[in-house]
Input
Amino acid sequence: MTNTVSGAASAPTYPCAVNPDVLHPLLDGLCHQVLTSSFGSAALMDALSSGLSDVSSLLRGLPAAEGRLIERGIQMIAGLNPELVVLTENIRLPVSKAALDVVERNDPRHYASLTLDADSGGRRGYTPDMIIVSRVTKIAHVVDVKRSLSSYDAVRLQELKKRMLAAALTVPDLLYQEHHRLSVEAVHVVILDAQNASRDPSTGIWPVSDLDHLLGVDGAGKAIAYLRRSFQTAVEQVWREALQHYAQARDLTEDERRAGAMPWADTKRHAPVDRCLSGRDDRIVGVAGSGAGERPEIRIGFASLPSVRPQALS
Output
């Protein structure tokens, strides 16, 4: 896949840009791969034959499938920018009581340059969906991707932010020790809302439409929107095909077939995924201890969008 920079008057000055003709088929293939692994026609046929309980169980797996799809889509698009290092494996971060106390009791300005040892234990931990490091800006973004924040009340969202900030204190040490002496000058946390329903850059909440800025790739946000539409369409297609095969196998009457129409579909919009895909997807794991590290000053805090949007290329 070739990195491109458009010379059009309306194009922002990001170092790379999406080529839809090249990327969309790859995203379609990724969608098919993720969907068939958890929601194939054969699996749905078996569930329909077994009863409503099995069908409901299968549908409940769709939120996690879409979440994985969005994460992998972001990773694929990030690969267009050679300036980025994207980490998705072995990034379990400790969240010690001391780190949480620091975050809860202090203004961010007072602990912005504090770092902790990544190998010190603790009872709790946090595993981000990815850490994105820019070799040019020396900024690491600790990223948590949410397909929707609508199910998060204020308290739960605040707790997530605290865990992310506390975990971010160990990122510089983790990158230096476990990822080829990769060094950063700042660590920012960002929560991506794939439904574009929430935006509060002052506390690190970004709509996925601002993904262009995070990855330095023009068209990244639109590409993820395309991926979600592709997923929704594919889910509906699998459902209809499985229902048709099931009806043929059972030789149902036309009235029975109509009665078996998608129970969670909105015929006016692609709502089935948004209606049946809900639930928690933050990943908390157990870790142990913490300690202070002697490192150069590192800036820790929420990711914020630039106050002035990138200017068009002339």
About this structure: The chain has twelve helices and ten strands. Residues 1-11, 262-293 have pLDDT under 50 and may be disordered. Residues 16-226+275-302 form one domain.
